[in-house]
TrEMBL record, chains A, B:
Keyword terms: Oxidoreductase, PQQ biosynthesis
Catalytic activity: 6-(2-amino-2-carboxyethyl)-7,8-dioxo-1,2,3,4,7,8-hexahydroquinoline-2,4-dicarboxylate + 3 O2 = pyrroloquinoline quinone + 2 H2O2 + 2 H2O + H(+)
Organism: Aliidongia dinghuensis
EC number(s) per entry: 1.3.3.11
Protein name (Swiss-Prot/TrEMBL): Pyrroloquinoline-quinone synthase
Role this protein plays: Ring cyclization and eight-electron oxidation of 3a-(2-amino-2-carboxyethyl)-4,5-dioxo-4,5,6,7,8,9-hexahydroquinoline-7,9-dicarboxylic-acid to PQQ.
InterPro entries assigned to the protein according to its UniProt record, in alphabetical order: Haem_Oase-like_multi-hlx, PqqC, PqqC-like, Thiaminase-2/PQQC
Family: Belongs to the PqqC family.
Domain of life, per lineage: Bacteria
Keyword Translocase: no
């Protein structure tokens, strides 16, 4: 007996179950970051590498925007570009992440060059951009659904980092404040789209696979960071070396 | 004062210097693999993940072949497809790697499915295939030049693995025997092409960057393996779990 497609509610439950198993809040690196167990160089490595992810999000969203068929859909998705690239120089998520990186002691030009990021970061982020560019619109939208899970991790991160790191200030973490409202708004839209359009078994399997893939993108970035800068701490040739490791 | 382009000999020396600093024979995972410091499950994880790399090499070579402009170049490059895909079922490098994987105790169908590989493996290998598909022919050819460095690592690997692992036989490692002659032949061709065609500063910088990128592709695969299966040994959700870790 072959099972038919799931109801929208069952599909949503299956999507949320992926987050409960695979979202990167479960990664040991995040526990250490939020728990105050990292030193300044390790936090710098996180900020530096994560900048590459932030900086490629608008490319990801623009490539999807270019394929969306209606003005309604494009207008809804366009708000993500405004959130990340801002409405004036120095505004938006990418600029706020640069401030975060500067706040923890990195040179802005070095961060923007991405010269010191880990290969694992680059390959994971590029894989995400490629998925959104090359797969169906449905899969591309589904891959954004990790935002369903992000408000929890952001709240943990901000409170944990402010409590534990003397070199982190509320201004440094200003990136995260608007994300607490932007991410749920974006996730609601994407979830509604997926609930409505993933109606066959094949489409439902594709959206579940896309969300697992995206969880892998986030998780493997932390694998690479943890390996290089925490345990065992083997920094690959050419990657950022914190002051205390020089 | 701006430096002009390097001579072919100086360019070759610069390429070889990249290998001396960044080739994955320097990675701690390889030292452990060759030194007999891994258990059977860790060797299985290596064979399983490396299969994905092997399986995508013909796709990489075919995408370059499709862009090469002359019959002479295509004929020379076509030998790589014959080496990897064979001339009859059960022959060629991909088939021999499956025998290696079976020889260390993995199920062939599981290996071929690539279901249990690390996300870090997939993203790194896909990044290599994308580079060869999307960048200039010169960069695509230069990215193959890690084969300049492979005979040494193969000799170390075969002798080390046979000496240290009771579950590894000469038949299991039959993959490597033809590589000892194929890799130098291929590397000589690619090196000759690069020496002849990378004549401007920009071209020379591009081929050096392509070789560094390829070293990153190999290195980051070992980072992911080492992190998941050796130190600290955090296997990501969904990845292969050896018998002794279940």
């Amino acid at each position: 007996m072959t099972a038919g497609p799931m109801s929208p509610d069952a599909l949503e439950a299956a999507l949320r179950a992926i987050g409960a198993e695979r979202y990167h809040n479960l990664h040991p690196f995040h526990r250490r970051l939020h728990g105050g167990d990292l030193n300044r160089g390790q936090v710098q490595a996180w900020a530096l590498n994560r900048y590459y992810y932030q900086s490629r999000i608008p490319a990801k969203d623009a490539s999807l925007l270019a394929r969306l068929p209606t003005a309604d859909l494009r207008r809804a998705w366009r708000s993500r570009l405004e959130d990340h690239d801002g409405t004036a120089p120095g505004t938006g998520g990418v600029a706020r992440w640069l401030k975060l990186a500067e706040g923890v002691g990195l040179e802005r030009a070095y961060v923007e060059s991405t010269a010191g990021i880990l290969a694992g970061t680059r390959f994971a982020v590029d894989a995400y951009v490629a998925l959104v560019r090359e797969r169906s619109i449905l899969e591309a939208i589904a891959s954004s659904l990790t935002e369903l899970f992000s408000p929890t991790i952001i709240a943990e991160r901000v409170s944990g980092m402010l409590a534990h790191y003397s070199f982190v200030t509320p201004e440094t973490l200003a990136y995260f404040t608007p994300r607490l409202t932007q991410a749920p708004r974006d996730a609601d839209f994407a979830l509604g789209y997926v609930r409505e359009h993933a109606v066959t078994v094949e489409q439902q399997e594709a959206v579940l696979a896309a969300l697992r893939f995206k969880c892998d993108v986030l998780w493997s970035q932390l694998d690479a960071l943890h390996f290089a800068y925490v345990e065992p701490g083997f920094i690959p040739p050419g990657a950022f070396v914190p002051d205390d490791r020089r």
